[in-house]
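About this split. The held-out portion is used to measure sequence recovery: a designer receives only the structure tokens and must propose an amino acid at every position. Recovery is the fraction of positions where the proposal matches the reference. Here is one held-out target exactly as it appears in the evaluation file.
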């Protein structure tokens, strides 16, 4: 909004020229989201405690160390949603359709997660919104937004998949791009949700992925840089760097309260929305497959659950002591901070590998 209001004044006052720079507005969005979280956090946590004193229900079959977390409020994802949405609207070009598509996914998935969290709290058990209903809602919203994204993407990109490490390869999938985009957005959303099981475990990899896609958005949306790196140019996608900056600020602000021992959990309100918006940004920037590398930690967690379920159905035995993967290491006796920090390190390494695809072509 500031861009739309103040950048036209640059011809009269040099100072307002700053608002034309993506880098300046991305930094502004990051700091704004961070400050909103700092100001909002204590009040939101107190409100959640008053509304639901028992906090998030704890799985009876989960690691024993989790029982001491009883009473910790959930739905902290509201803090992230509010800070990211407000700071993005404040600093981004509000005429950019890609920004609104991404925000629609984030807010819509956040609403789905909120309903799920609310049902868990009111029922006082871990069973929230029915899995099929949740998935149906995610697919429906993803399909609607993905169709809009396809309509907005330039010719040659709206029905193709870019292959990492190959500069000129575009896999033409035609109408199948729509279900592929739905898979990316919905899959990313649920992958982050599965990863969110320990204090601080999911939010830092989300911030790392947001930083990577902030850079990718900036480069892909710039004709000169995308041409130099031989990437597929997507006009207007650079504005998503502002949203990614807001995601980083919101994530770091939330981490202030979610660091061990957590004062609040993000719940499905946060995890579903954060994964969904990363998936939408990946689709817009034509880096869907790179998301699987940068967000490889989320993929690992999801695959561990798939393997566990499939193997148990076939043999009646388990591959892991408990799934998702982080619970397996808890059962092995690893302390929670050890698991979280080591998983953060893995996330950084995978992010660097994913970023290398920008140059290695």
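Reference sequence for scoring:
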């Amino acid at each position: 909004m500031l861009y739309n209001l103040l950048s036209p004044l640059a011809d009269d006052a040099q100072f307002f020229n700053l608002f034309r720079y993506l880098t300046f507005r991305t930094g502004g969005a990051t700091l704004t989201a961070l400050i909103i979280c700092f100001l909002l956090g204590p009040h939101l946590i107190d409100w959640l405690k008053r509304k639901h004193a028992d906090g998030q229900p704890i799985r009876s079959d989960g690691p024993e160390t989790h029982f001491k977390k009883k009473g910790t409020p959930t739905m902290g994802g509201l803090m992230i949603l509010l800070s990211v949405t407000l700071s993005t609207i404040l600093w981004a070009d509000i005429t950019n359709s890609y920004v609104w598509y991404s925000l629609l996914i984030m807010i819509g998935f956040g609403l789905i997660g909120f309903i799920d969290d609310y049902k868990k709290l009111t029922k006082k058990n871990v069973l929230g919104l029915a899995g099929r209903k949740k998935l149906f809602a995610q697919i429906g919203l993803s399909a609607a937004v993905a169709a809009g994204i396809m309509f907005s993407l330039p010719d040659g990109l709206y029905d193709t998949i870019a292959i990492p490490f190959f500069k000129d390869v575009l896999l033409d999938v035609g109408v199948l791009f729509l279900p592929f985009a739905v898979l990316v957005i919905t899959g990313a959303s649920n992958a982050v949700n599965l990863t969110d099981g320990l204090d601080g475990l999911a939010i830092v990899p989300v911030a790392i992925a947001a930083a990577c896609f902030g850079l990718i958005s900036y480069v892909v949306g710039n004709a000169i840089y995308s041409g130099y790196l031989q990437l597929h140019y997507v006009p207007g996608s650079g504005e998503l760097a502002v949203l990614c900056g807001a995601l980083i600020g919101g994530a770091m602000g939330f981490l202030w309260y979610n660091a061990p021992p957590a004062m609040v959990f993000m719940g499905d309100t946060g995890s579903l929305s954060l994964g969904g918006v990363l998936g939408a940004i990946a689709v817009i920037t034509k880096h869907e497959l790179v998301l699987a590398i940068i967000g490889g930690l989320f993929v690992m967690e999801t695959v561990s659950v798939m393997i566990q379920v499939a193997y148990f159905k076939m043999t009646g035995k388990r591959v892991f002591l408990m799934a998702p993967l982080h619970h397996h290491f808890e059962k092995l006796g690893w302390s929670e901070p050890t698991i979280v920090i080591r998983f953060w390190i893995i996330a950084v390494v995978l992010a660097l590998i994913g970023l290398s695809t920008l140059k290695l072509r």
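Annotator remark: The chain has a mean pLDDT of 92.
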